[in-house]
């Protein structure tokens, strides 16, 4: 039987960005979108333009700069939303308008306060209106999995007649279970007379941990497009994870018989980028991209792997772009070796970035004997941060102990001025952060702080991630150093710099 092709619709920049605290600015969204294009997803949902000026600008930027995938903007089924999405997408060579309107009894009665007839009318009118602006229209009956079947069939039929080319079936609240969700897709195929004129898409949330299972069941039952996000980020418990779906299809081709356009060797890099820019860490046991996903601990397993890899490994780490955690460079490595290694990792830097990253590498090599790929990626990611650094760390001095009050003295540089202040705190990190607040005058609330070692070993690089809130905005920051207090300060400063810019 000929292999079928699934359309991969990535919504990391829209539903993914609805993750609490993910907040991405336009440049960060563009950086992720460019990487999604390298990953070769079919569709990028870049945002919800009417929701804020920032989202509008981000969709516009992505639409004008990212070539290859279809660029999609979300809109409620109302004219002003559709106009806004259309305006934001004007520069896209392949724009798509994605309209949604709830169809479940509970949403229609309590949220929309509208009867079925009105919902049908609004759906049809909005699709017709959008169709006058663009060719590629997707329609989502929100909360489809909890909608009355006959009403759902009827609205799908009518929006297809009105011009929708894709009908997306969202499990908005993550309520469905796999067999049932598969039957829903099959029911649509059997009961919507004109369904062959549209692609059936699905969009699953992970409230019961079933988003990927539901998506795969939908594929088995004829869905042609899957909506998903990198690392499974998204509203509440998140969306179906792109990397899990793509690798399930690739690994179990014997069962599914589907191909996707995704270049799987770009998966790991994309996962890291999304994690770095959203500040949402990937849990170590996360399938495909978690730190432990390819690590074998049990002796019997290690022995089996050495004898024949496939005894315990169903995928190869290199298939997702994960090279072995090899010792690569050291103190005596030169710029050329550094550049070659980065190329191997798929990282290309501009000359100025390379100079900064190489200096950082040399500084690190003075402190840490063995430098692994993970170290390299961490420092490079930090050096090519997309934001102009308003405040930079010049000097840091901390006194701390179990019998004294911790105190920090910090000098920060902005443009050409250097400001030094000091402060005490409950602990050394608190003392540092209070000192930075004094210098910058920005008093954000620290919502989250986490520290992890980038690799093993006592001299490992520490990576700190923080989330900060100020005037209703939530931003994340990340910093790395072999000194965890310096990493803490860098992470906090990168968040502060985001708040300023
Ligand atoms: O979960 C959902 O229903 C959505 C729609 C807007 C597609 O995100
Ligand atoms: Zn959603």
Overview of this structure, please?
By secondary structure, the protein is of the alpha/beta class. It has 4 domains: 275 residues, Aldolase class I (TIM Barrel); 26 residues, no CATH class; 59 residues; 109 residues, 2-Layer Sandwich (Double Stranded RNA Binding Domain), CATH 3.30.160. The protein is built from 17 helices and 18 strands. Helix 6 packs across helix 7. The chain starts with a strand and ends with a helix. The model has no long low-confidence stretch (mean pLDDT 92). The site of 3-methyl-2-oxobutanoic acid has 9 residues, from strand 6 and strand 7.
CATH superfamily of the largest domain: Aldolase class I
Shape: globular
CATH level 1 class label of the largest domain: Alpha Beta
DSSP summary: helix tally: 17
- In CATH terms, what is the architecture of the largest domain? Alpha-Beta Barrel
**Beta-strand level of the residues, as a percent range?**
15-25%
Number of domains: 4
Spatial strand sequence of the major β-sheet: 2-3-4-5-6-7-8-9
Could you give a quick summary of the protein structure above?
By secondary structure, the chain is an alpha/beta fold. The chain has helices spanning 26-39, 53-65, 79-88, 105-112, 116-133, 149-162, 178-191, 211-220, 242-251, 253-256, 267-278, 299-307, 335-344, 351-367, 373-383, 428-440, 484-500; strands spanning 4-5, 7-10, 43-47, 70-76, 95-102, 137-142, 166-171, 199-204, 225-228, 258-259, 327-329, 371-372, 392-399, 407-414, 417-424, 445-453, 462-470, 473-481.
């Amino acid at each position: 039987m000929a292999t079928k092709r699934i359309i991969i619709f990535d919504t990391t920049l829209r539903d993914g960005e609805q993750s609490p605290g993910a907040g991405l600015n336009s440049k960060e969204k563009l950086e992720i979108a460019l990487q999604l294009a390298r990953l070769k997803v079919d569709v990028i949902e870049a945002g919800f333009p009417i929701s804020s000026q920032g989202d509008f600008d981000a969709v516009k930027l992505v639409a004008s700069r990212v070539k290859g995938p279809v660029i999609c903007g979300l809109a409620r089924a109302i004219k002003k939303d559709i106009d806004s999405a259309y305006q934001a997408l004007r520069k896209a060579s392949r724009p798509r308008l994605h309209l949604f309107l709830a169809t479940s009894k509970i949403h229609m009665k309590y949220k929309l306060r509208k009867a079925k007839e009105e919902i049908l009318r609004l759906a049809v009118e909005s699709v017709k209106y959008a169709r006058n602006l663009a060719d590629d229209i997707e329609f989502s009956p929100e909360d489809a999995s909890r909608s009355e079947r006959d009403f759902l069939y009827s609205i799908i039929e009518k929006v297809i007649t009105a011009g929708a080319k894709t009908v997306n079936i969202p499990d908005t609240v993550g309520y469905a279970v796999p067999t049932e969700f598969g039957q829903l897709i099959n029911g649509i195929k059997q009961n919507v007379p004109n369904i062959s004129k549209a692609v059936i898409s699905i969009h699953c949330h992970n409230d019961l941990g079933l988003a990927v299972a539901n998506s795969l069941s939908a594929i088995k039952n004829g869905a042609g497009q899957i909506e998903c996000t990198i690392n499974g980020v998204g509203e509440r418990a998140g969306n179906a994870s792109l990397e899990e779906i793509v690798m399930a299809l690739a690994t179990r081709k014997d069962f599914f018989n589907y191909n996707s356009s995704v270049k799987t060797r770009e998966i790991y890099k994309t996962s890291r980028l999304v994690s770095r820019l959203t500040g949402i860490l990937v849990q170590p046991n996360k399938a495909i991209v978690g730190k432990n996903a390819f690590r074998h601990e049990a002796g019997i397993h290690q022995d089996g792997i050495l004898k024949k890899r496939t005894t315990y490994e169903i995928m190869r780490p290199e298939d997702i772009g994960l090279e072995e955690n090899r010792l690569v460079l050291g103190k005596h490595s030169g710029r050329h070796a550094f550049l070659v290694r980065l190329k191997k990792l798929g990282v290309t830097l501009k000359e100025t970035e390379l100079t900064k990253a190489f200096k950082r590498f040399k500084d690190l090599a003075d402190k840490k004997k063995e430098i692994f790929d993970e170290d390299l990626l961490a420092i490079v990611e930090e050096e090519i941060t997309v934001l102009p650094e308003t405040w930079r760390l010049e000097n840091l001095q901390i006194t701390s102990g179990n019998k004294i009050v911790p105190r920090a003295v910090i000098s920060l540089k902005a443009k050409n001025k250097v400001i030094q202040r000091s402060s005490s705190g409950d602990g050394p990190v608190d003392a540092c952060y209070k000192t930075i607040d004094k210098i910058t005058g920005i008093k954000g609330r620290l919502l989250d702080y986490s520290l992890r070692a980038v690799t093993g070993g006592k001299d490992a690089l520490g990576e700190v991630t923080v989330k900060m809130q100020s005037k209703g905005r939530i931003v994340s920051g990340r910093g790395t150093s072999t000194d965890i207090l310096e990493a803490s300060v860098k992470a906090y400063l990168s968040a502060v710099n985001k708040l300023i810019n």
